[in-house]
Structure formats: structure tokens, C-alpha cells
Design goal:
Layout (H helix, E strand, L loop, with lengths): L6 H9 L2 H4 L19 H12 L5 H13 L3 H15 L5 H18 L5 H12 L4 H10 L3 H11 L15 E3 L3 E3 L4 E6 L3 E5 L6 E5 L6 E4 L5 H14 L6 E5 L5 H4 L2 H5 L6 E5 L2 H9 L3 H8 L6 H4 L5 E3 L3 E5 L2 E8 L7 E6 L4 E5 L16 H14 L3 E4 L2 H6 L3 H24 L3 H6 L15 H19 L15 H11 L4 H13 L3 H15 L3 H18 L4 H10 L12
Parallel strand pairs: 6-7, 7-8, 8-9, 13-14
Antiparallel strand pairs: 1-2, 3-4, 4-5, 5-6, 10-11, 11-12, 12-13
Helix pairs in contact: 1-6, 3-4, 4-5, 4-6, 5-6, 6-7, 8-9, 16-18, 18-20, 21-23, 22-23, 22-24, 23-24, 24-25
Length: 579
């Protein structure tokens, strides 16, 4: 169950409080009694970004609020944001103050049950005006007012207060159809000429009407034949007078960009497919990756044979110019950050550049041997040189977060600095964990372009991981890799040598979860299950831990979100869009 909290709602919640809190701002609360937690570099990064100046992108404020809440550090979060409100107050507009007040109020409400009864009345009164009905109900419940709590719960739309996580993500997970990054929608990026289809499956679909209005041009073929059919028929229903589909350009030959080709091959007339000349090399590499993982991403309906059988009608090995239906098209081979068979499709007269997944944050699928950091930097140079008005990626979050060529130019500088730091750390013998915990932030980033802050955070973890994997052998400087110990060995240590029972192990995992150490708790539960099996007690603890990991990564790492949800069979219904 989830509730989407839009910035508009937050503004409404906060705006009504300005008159009251202008004279009675939330006081700073002491964090002295809060237990310390393990290093969370993403939290430290968001703190640094929000400490530097009032964020121009409100998402950075609410990502920080969510990170504090997920880490069970609501007290510290309320204190930190209260300090920023006091510091930045004279520079803030009323809507900006409303955002701070709403974030502080949500954190205070979540912390209310930890406040002593002696102080709770004043604490609750300070918090009440900031909140939505669900959190007001939680406060009433903590205060012992069952009738008021039930009334607020009814107004909130939730069925109960037993809600271990709050999901504000547009992501959806379904066993049969896999992951979708957004709710279903059809957008006219250029009215009557360029259409974008989101949320029909893992990948975006794009279609372009040619200059002479006689041909329809597709970009990529999707993941599965059934989802390609659903998306294409939805487009035809939305714009019934579109011309016939004659051409499909493939930005790269990953599973999710060619897997739907069987449906399009069945159309009459059959569209002509264009792809890079080295497409087969890419397909062979991805077919060697673990097949079971693909199902988590693309659903049980995914058929790898539709990837294996792909063969384009024309291949491209050098920059090529075409005209289709009068539309001038430039096909630009690039290495890109993800695959070596990438191809940009540039429509210069429309100011549109289709870039596929060249800046997929994982630098290739994280479960496959691929990724080219220098290829990413070189491809950024091409994007900056073409300077398109519309830069359209293979997945909705990429288009949303990496939309500006000018921003990418700045990001290239930041990423080059990051690469130097990582390679230096590797030569020094630093562990991968130590590099992550260093919270590497390039000079000038925090006071530079506001739209580069979130993209850098999204990329940083995976740039470190990919570079580390590509530059360190299977024996590492800290001797990791010399042994081959697994979960059963760790269980032997815990049970046979330390004498811990299943109950004590689960209790320890629950304490780790309460301290926000979800990855550590998950590791302990995996070892426990290796000895005791997935008993009811272990399964219940795992359910909470993996839900909290989903919550943690819901806005910054969709692939982790996918795998954590698959671990416990958690499906996330697609959000409906208002008409």
C-alpha cells in the first residue's frame, strides 16, 4: 500500500502554517539520546547538498527527509532541517518555508512515539498543523485517542496504521510483467510529430511521424511481444490517423530494447530494423548473464528467445545520414557507458536526440560484464556538441534526471574527478566499502549547477562499483577473495561456535533494522536461513528488512528496488494517473 505525496500537496500542507510558525518556529531538538548508526554515504551527501544552500530542486529536500526517516533518525532529521530553516529563513520564499515546515512535521510525527509522555503534549501541538491525515492519526494513536485516530485513518484512505514503509515512487512491480518506471501515459513531446509512451513495461517507446506524414518511425522495440502490442495499440487508439510503421531504429541491443521485436515483425507491412553492426557481440554477452535475474526485471512473460533471434535488416558501423519520409536522420555510433553497440538517433530539424541508455547509472547491467566509463564521457561530448532541444532516453527516470546537455557537460567534469579519486584509492589499497564511505564530492559541485546534484548522486555508487570491478582482481588488497566462505559457513560460526539460537539471531537482526542497518540485517538473516531454513520468524524479519530496503532506494536506485522486492515476492501496483 502506498500514498503518493506530491510537492503540491506538501505546499498546501505547509502554506497554511506560515502565519503560526512565523512566530513559533519548530525548536531544535536534541539528538543526544539517539544511537549512532553505520555510515550512510547517500545520507551524508544529501546533508551536504542541503547544508550548502536552500536547494533549488525541492526533491533534494524531500530525499533527505526520506533518508532520515528510513534510517530511523527522525530526531536528527527534524533537528537538521530546523537548523536550516533558521539559517536560511531570511532568504526563503513562503512556498520554500512551507516545504521545510512540512518535512520537519513529517519527521516529528514519526518520532512522536519515542517522546516521553511528560513532553508529548507540547511536542504534538507543535507538530499537528504540519501533517496529513495519516500522520495526524498516528499522533492521536500515540496519544491514546483511539476515536480520533480512527477518524483520521478513515480520512487518509489507509486501511490500518500497520504500514512499515511509505512508498512515494512511481515504480511498479508485477510478477508476470516485471518492472515499470512510471505510470502509463502517452505524451506528445512535439505535438503531432514525436510521441513517447511510458509505463507500459520496463522500457520507453518512441514514435516519430515523418515530415511528409506518410511514415511512422519507431525507436527501440521494447522488452516483450505482449507489452509491445499493448503499447502500440494504445498509441493507435490515442492517435488513430497515424501512418504505417515502416522503420525501427535500435539504440542498443539489450534485452529490453529488442525483446519485443517479434510483435513488430508480425505487422503488415513489416518495419525495417536498423541496429549497430556489432549487435551480435552484445547479444552474445548478455545471454551469458544469469537468466534468472532477467525475470525479476522483465517479468515471467519475458522470452529470451526473442532476444536471441534478433537480426536487423540493416546495420550501421559509421556515422550515417538517411532520409525517411522527408525526415533527415543522423545515425551516430557511440560506445556509451553501457554497451559498445550503442547508437544515437538524431533528428536535427526537430531538435531531437534519442540516446538510449548511454548514461544508465550502472554503466552496463550490474549483473553482466560490460560498461565503459570513457565511452560515457566521449558520448557526453557528442550530446553537448549536438545540443538537442529534446534528449530522450530509454527509460523515464533517465529522461527526467539527465535532460540537459549543459548539465551533462558539468557532470562530465565531476565524473572525471570521481574516476581519478577511485583509481587513486584502488592503487592505495582501499577497500570498495571504504571508497563508498568516503562520501566523495567533487570541488565546486555543491555550489555549482543545481540540476547536477541529484544526477551525480545517482551515478556515484555505480561508477565506484564498476571501476573497482574493472580494476581489481579476484584477490583484493584486504585479502577479500582468498577464501570462499558462504552463508552456511557464517551460520556455522554463529550457531556452532558462538552458540546463538535462531531467536537470538532474529532479535539481533530486528535491532539492526531498528538502527537503520538494513543491509547488515539482511546478511545476518540470510546466514540464519542457511541453518534454520526460512522459518516463520525469519521470514517475518526478512519481510520488514527488505521492505525497508525498498523504501530506502525507491527514488535513487530502481534496480536495487527490483531485486529487494523480488527477494520477498512483494508486488507494487501501478499508480493510476488522473485524467
Amino acid at each position: 500500500m502506498r500514498k503518493f505525496i506530491s510537492l503540491l500537496v506538501v505546499l498546501v500542507l505547509g502554506a497554511g502554517l506560515l502565519a503560526y510558525f512565523g512566530k513559533n518556529r519548530p525548536t531544535r531538538v536534541s539528538a543526544g539520546q539517539t544511537q549512532s548508526v553505520s555510515s550512510r554515504p547517500e545520507l551524508e551527501y544529501l546533508k551536504a547538498a542541503n547544508r550548502a544552500a536552500p536547494p533549488k530542486d525541492p526533491q533534494l529536500l524531500f530525499l533527505l527527509m526520506g533518508a532520515y526517516a528510513n534510517a530511523n533518525q527522525q530526531l536528527e532529521g527534524a533537528e537538521f532541517l530546523s537548523a536550516r530553516l533558521n539559517e536560511f529563513g531570511p532568504r526563503l520564499s513562503d512556498p520554500q518555508k512551507a516545504l521545510y515546515l512540512s518535512a520537519i512535521g513529517l519527521l516529528r510525527a514519526q518520532h512522536a512515539s519515542s517522546v516521553s509522555l511528560l513532553h508529548r503534549i507540547g511536542y504534538v501541538k507543535d507538530t499537528v498543523a504540519m501533517l496529513d491525515d495519516f500522520h495526524l492519526g498516528k499522533l492521536a494513536l500515540a496519544d491514546g485517542d483511539q476515536i480520533k485516530a480512527r477518524d483520521y485513518l478513515r480520512q487518509s484512505g489507509y486501511k490500518s496504521f500497520e504500514k512499515p514503509i511509505v512508498l512515494t515512487t512511481p515504480f511498479s512491480e508485477d510478477t508476470l510483467s516485471g518492472h515499470a518506471f512510471a505510470s502509463r501515459r502517452i505524451a506528445e513531446i512535439i505535438p503531432g510529430r514525436v510521441y513517447g509512451l511510458s509505463g507500459f513495461e520496463f522500457t520507453e517507446y518512441y514514435f516519430v511521424v515523418s515530415d511528409d506524414r506518410r511514415e511512422l518511425i519507431g525507436i527501440d522495440a521494447g522488452t516483450r511481444a505482449d507489452s509491445a502490442k499493448t503499447a502500440y495499440e494504445a498509441l493507435r487508439g490515442y492517435a488513430p490517423n497515424l501512418p504505417e510503421l515502416t522503420t525501427i531504429f535500435v539504440t542498443h541491443s539489450h534485452w529490453d530494447h529488442i525483446g519485443g521485436q517479434a510483435y513488430f515483425r508480425g505487422l503488415n507491412p513489416k518495419p525495417r530494423f536498423y541496429a549497430r553492426s556489432n549487435y551480435k557481440e552484445e547479444i552474445d554477452g548478455e545471454l551469458d548473464a544469469p537468466g534468472s535475474i532477467a525475470k525479476h526485471f522483465f517479468g515471467e512473460r519475458f522470452n529470451v528467445d526473442d532476444v536471441r533471434s534478433f537480426k536487423p535488416d540493416a546495420t550501421i558501423d559509421r556515422p550515417t545520414e538517411l532520409k525517411i519520409g522527408g525526415t533527415r536522420i543522423e545515425l551516430i555510433p557511440v560506445h556509451g557507458g553501457e554497451t559498445h553497440d550503442a547508437m544515437f538517433i538524431h533528428l536535427p530539424d526537430l531538435g531531437v536526440l534519442f540516446v538510449g541508455d548511454f548514461i544508465m547509472p550502472y554503466l552496463g547491467a550490474p549483473f553482466a560484464v560490460e560498461g565503459d566509463f570513457q565511452g560515457l564521457l566521449d558520448a557526453i561530448d557528442i550530446v553537448v556538441q549536438k545540443n538537442p532541444r529534446y534528449m530522450l532516453h530509454g527509460h523515464e527516470p533517465l529522461t527526467r534526471n539527465f535532460s540537459s546537455p549543459a548539465m551533462l557537460g558539468q557532470l562530465k567534469t565531476n565524473l572525471s574527478w570521481l574516476r581519478d579519486q577511485v583509481l587513486t584509492a584502488i592503487r592505495r589499497g582501499d577497500t570498495r566499502a571504504a571508497i563508498h564511505q568516503a562520501n566523495l564530492i567533487p570541488p565546486g559541485l555543491l555550489n555549482g549547477r543545481a540540476d547536477a546534484l541529484l544526477p551525480y548522486l545517482i551515478l556515484r555508487e555505480h561508477v565506484i562499483d564498476r571501476l573497482y570491478h574493472q580494476n581489481v582482481g579476484y584477490w583484493q588488497a584486504d585479502l577479500e577473495g582468498l577464501d570462499h566462505l558462504g552463508d552456511s559457513d557464517r551460520a556455522e560460526l554463529l550457531v556452532d561456535y558462538l552458540g546463538l539460537s535462531e531467536k537470538r539471531l532474529v532479535t539481533a537482526a530486528e535491532k539492526m533494522a531498528a538502527d537503520g542497518k538494513y543491509e547488515l540485517a539482511a546478511s545476518l538473516l540470510e546466514a540464519s536461513a542457511a541453518r534454520f531454513g526460512r522459518t516463520e520468524t525469519i521470514a517475518k524479519a526478512e519481510q520488514l528488512v527488505y521492505l525497508k530496503l525498498m523504501e530506502k532506494y525507491q527514488n535513487t536506485d530502481p534496480f536495487k528496488y527490483i531485486l529487494y522486492s523480488a527477494k520477498i515476492g512483494e508486488q507494487t501496483p501501478a499508480m493510476t494517473t488522473s485524467k
